[in-house]
Amino acid sequence: MWITAMMGGPSNLVQKHLSGLFNSIASFYHPSNNGRWLNKLMKLLQRLPSGVVRRLHRERYKKVTWLTPVPESHKLTDQDVTDFVQCIIQPVLLAMFSKTGSLEAAQALQNLALMRPELVIPPVLERTYPALETLTEPHQLTATLSCVIGVARSLVSGGKWFPEGPTHMLPLLMRALPGVDPNDFSKCMITFQFIATFSTLVPLVDCSSVLQERDDLSEVERELCSASAEFEDFVLQFMDRCFGLIESSTLEQTREETETEKMTHLESLVELGLSSTFSTILTQCSKDIFKVALEKVFNFAVSNIFETRVAGRMVADMCRAAVKCRPEESLKLFVPHCCNVITHLTGNDDVLHDEELDKELLWNLQLLSEITRVDGKKLLLYREQFGKILQRTLHLTCKQGYILSCNLLHHLLRSATLIYPTEYCSVPGGFDKPLSEYFPIKDWGKPGDLWNLDIQWHVPSSEEISFAFYLLDTFLQPELTRLELYALGELEMSRDDVQQCLAIVHNCLIGSGNILPPLKGERVAHLVPSLVSLEETKLYTGVEYDLSRENYRETIAGVTRKLLHYILDNSEDDTKSLFLIIKIISDVLQFQGSHKHEFDSRWKSFNLVKKSMENRLQGKKQHIRALLIDRVMLQHELRTLTMEGCEYKTSHQEMIRDLLYLSTSSYGQVRSKAQQAFFTALGTYNFCCRDIIPLVLEFLRPDRQDVTQKQFKGALYCLLGNHSGVCLANLHDWDCIAQTWPAIVSSGLSKAMSLEKPSIVRLFDDLAEKIHRQYETIGLDFAVPEKCMEVAVLLQKSGQPSSEFPALGSEEIQLGIQRQKEKNAEALRNYENLVNMLLDCVEQRNLPWKFEHISIGFLSLLLRDDRILPPRAIKFFVQCLNHDAIVVRKVAISAVAGILKQLKRTHKKVPICPYKISRSLKPSSIQAGDRADNQWLHYNSQSLPKTKEAWESCCFVEKTHWGYYTWPQTMTVYAPAEQQPKLGRRRDELTEEEQIIYDHFSDPNFVEQLIKFLSLEDRKGKDKFNPRRFCLFKGLFRNFDDAFLPILQPHLEQLVADSHESTQRCLAEIIAGLIRGSKHWTFEKVEKLWNLLCPLLRTALSNITVETYNDWGTCIATSCESRDPRKLHWLFELLLESPLSGEGGSFVDACRLYVLQGGLAQQEWRVPELLHRLLKYLEPKLTQVYKNVRERIGSVLTYIFMIDVSLPNTAATKSPRVHEFTTRILENLKPLMEADEEIQNHVMEENGVGEQDERTQGIKLLKTILKWLMASAGRSFSTAVTEQLQLLPLFFKIAPVENDNSYDELKRDAKMCLSLMSQGLLYPQQVPLVLQVLKQIAKSNSWHARYTILTYLQTMVFYNLFIFLNNSEAVNDIRWLVIKLLEDEQLEVREMAATTLSGLLQCNFLTMDRPMQTHFEQLCKMRLPKKRKRDLASVGDTIPSGDLVKRHAGVLGLSACILSSPYDVPTWMPQLLMDLSAHLNDPQPIEMTVKKTLSNFRRTHHDNWQEHKQQFTDDQLLVLTDLLVSPCYYA
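Given the sequence above, the corresponding structure tokens read:
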């Protein structure tokens, strides 16, 4: 977002840096590179073009709104856009074939093609055509096709930038056809998507005849006209491909005998892809092409007999697509044929009773049921035939047969009664006009016109409604009559017959749901009192209900309920019938023409298609017409689905109760299905939960003996709810949770409850967890402010906007206020009752422990800000602090801490003026840091408040951030002690709630037991300082000041004497609570407290152990957080006494420093004096011998200098400054800097006697400094300062080359420090300094140092790429340095220089230019001494001759250039390879370098060798082949 906003402008710096960035990282996008970083790089690639398109849209196409308009001078120019596309296109083209998939690249290309199609589409097509030809690389094909789909609209539209785009469409379509491949699912799906996308955009009309009639066509139009003659061929070839796919998908082909006959997930996806693609093609066809296609599909369907599970579904889908596009022509062919076959095959009555039906009959039934999903008006012609077929087939004995017949009935009813669009053509009115009037080529890629969509709707006519009711009267009524007689016991029916009847009823219901009025009935009253009408808002969805006809919804509801009760009483194990009944009940309640889950999946797929084809540059809903029609249809469906807010009527009540009954059935599957329907119904009707909850809780009552375990489980599931719906156990309503929570707890005593059943235990766990996760505090006191009521009255009187409601009188308003008060009082009663009921539940005998824990959890949720917990609950929680179970104790600690917060008394604050206190003027602008007006907040040992008068006159500011940048507008501090709540209160001055806590904590036995529990280990080795326990003690000492100190004091002394981990932790928590809780104590009390604490802390810190030092660090840091440092001067002085005294060994020293660091770090900028004192104390001790102390000093130094930041508008800090300290350090390290010999770590790990020499002291100091630099690299706010960079030569001297853990600490640290410093940000002014240091070290005698500067250089350049690219002098210096080191006498240095050069060339930091090439070629021509001389020389001398080194440098240089292009062959590469090959027989190490280079070249260029070898001449290829192909020893 920020990058795209900064683009453009006169300098266009951002574009320059972007080009640099993508030039550098382009090779990371190559498909052979893969790693965790790839996802982030791909995201960058996707988001940048998207951001630029969003910006361009705002600047060029968006309507003018109240947003600030972009000034002309700051808008992106066409050149800016072109530069951006050019810089990013290369990485995007590489990313197309990424291992993570091509989605991000496709989205990037889609956006880039909107801006510059002529730059984006040709290279994509260059990759697509070869991919369509290849058979061996399916990933390449799927990746390119998905990218072409992204750019399809830009390609087909052509436009001024890329007029020749449309000419590619037909070649692409024809070549994509082989992708319809039954053996490769992903290829098949992407091909369907590809063909569908292009077909949607283009009218498939043969325009070749226009060429003879018109001569005013452009070149491209003429080309398109002649190409359009191939459309018919394309459609027919596509159909042949599909038929091949279908024939290889039949059950006989794909299944063993025993396998399932259902469609697999993949097959259903292929079916969907096939049908939608074929439908799109036929929608876009001209009449002539359609006729040919129709005939072909008809012949295929009628000349074969398909099984109905897989292949049959696919063929039927293709036939349905054809019929849907042009119903009249298609129905004429299909309906008579199917009807004749079915009539013929069912002529014999024996067929009706066959268990297995003839395949031909099933296939024709399936075909007929699918082709009736078309425009209802066109079906009326054949109503009699349909009636006859239904008469013959609805009561077939074979289940497969009657289900297909039911589908036919369902589809006939839907087609006749629903409202839906009948065509989705890309141009309103279709393509059937003569070519002389209409030229289809003009409509290629044309968006739909939102204001002139001209949708052709199907709205049910009276004839269709009559036909629908005729079907219902003929086929539904008899079934309902039979079922009613069966339910009354007057008719015998087999289970199969019942299921058949129910299937017919269900299909009739979901077919005609749109024209059946909702259920009638009385509203269920008295669920909620309300002065406002709770009637539902009626939505008009285009349907007029014919109330003169029978409302079958009511009839179905009545009969189904009777049947349900009959089945449950007589044959509860008939689960299949129960499943159907559940579906029917659910649809009677909900179904008005469409199902929510179907709508959701269509909405999802609509959004996916919209995303892949939208034009975000122009916006303004420039979608294709089919998408716009789809969106209108979805909106219509959304309105029909909007049933939330429905009134809860008695008819609903009865059916929901039935669902509840089924939800607690004996059969798990019945329960599960019924519960889903139950949850949906609960979310639909207003306030029905209040009515249902008591019925659910009936099953949990402990006094009921007749509840089975299955019913108990069912009821718990009903309370739990599903993940998205209502959770009955946790409704935001006092009346409801006051019933459910106690019921859940007391259900622990129910006979049906068994903790031995894991499923029941899990249910209770889930219930408790869901309530804890979702519970939101319910309000107790709702009130409408006076002001709001006044405004409401004025609004009523104004008449703007006009309202039909009569104005409210003052009596009605008063009545409303009165009602509200009553409701608040009732809520309060409910709250207190709930608390008491939960407490009663816990106190029940025999209640299992699990339910006691659940109850305590519920009670802890009832802690509130605005209401103190009732005394009984407070007493309960305080007693729970000493409960046997640790889970309960943990909850109680949190709860009592919360209760103490509720009981906290408010402290008065007074405003002050910081400028008066500091006696300074208010600055004109904001300046951060240490200023004259915030100096008074600093810790100053000369003016600490050590007396009562000084304490009371001191103005304490607790928050650390106040005053650093600026002051709050009204600065407030706590008023003097005499204006604050009274301290040291007697018991009779406390409130009832406080007395409970006071009594318990005044009881020595209670406190002793509590301390015992708090000193216990919980999880060995994993316990940490517990903030909840700290809050408990902080609350106690804040609310009751030092009342409990006398009782606690002996325990504190006892705890400090015990060095066990858990006791020390307990002590740390209490002490932190004491220090923070004493915030408002008087000076006398605070002084007394510190007199007690100081000896304790001294003892504790001297007894500190490995396990406890973390806890003490947290304790002191917590104590100092948000506290004025002047208040804690006792603590700081104690900690600063002598941290490195040496008493207790190095570990105690390190721990003391750690604790001190925790305290000072919290104070940040307010303790410069303490930081200076500490630094002064530490400086002489930097030459520490012990590693742990050194590490800790390094960390402490980081915090000492943390505030030294150099930012704009920031005053210089009063705290210690890095550069002054570093200057002093450099002075001390001079002996090491000046010495030439290698620095060895020869210091013994113990303090030697007597003074050691400067050099040894220097090494010890250096070790500590290394620790400091390593710590500050990760934590400090600013990067290395100039003085720190002067240490680099020293580190280069020490750092080893290899990674080896056996090296001593000094070397390892130096290596690590170099690594961290190379990753730091350099300021532009530091660049020359660093390069100077590197040049100086390049002359060093140590080859280790020369080698290490190259690794340092690599990292430094990449981390500071933009700073270096902005400085051409620095780039030249680096180039010179690397090329110089190529000629180093040490082989390892030369090779590392070559690697560095290769990397810098690969990321385009350096460019491969003519002078560089010439330089390397010159070096390569260095003459070597004669072989004999060489042999003689090599005997006595191991140093290679200068000429050999130079020659090797030249070869390495050429090698680096070649290896810098691992994925392509630039024009200069063939010649360099030839140059290199000449050195294959040179002496070592040249020969080895040449071999390695050639081997790497072969490895990296092998994949695309066919493409790469075009860059070489025939002679060069001959030489290369000789070099790269191993000789055959059998030749």
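The radius of gyration is 42 Å. Try to locate this feature in the token string yourself.
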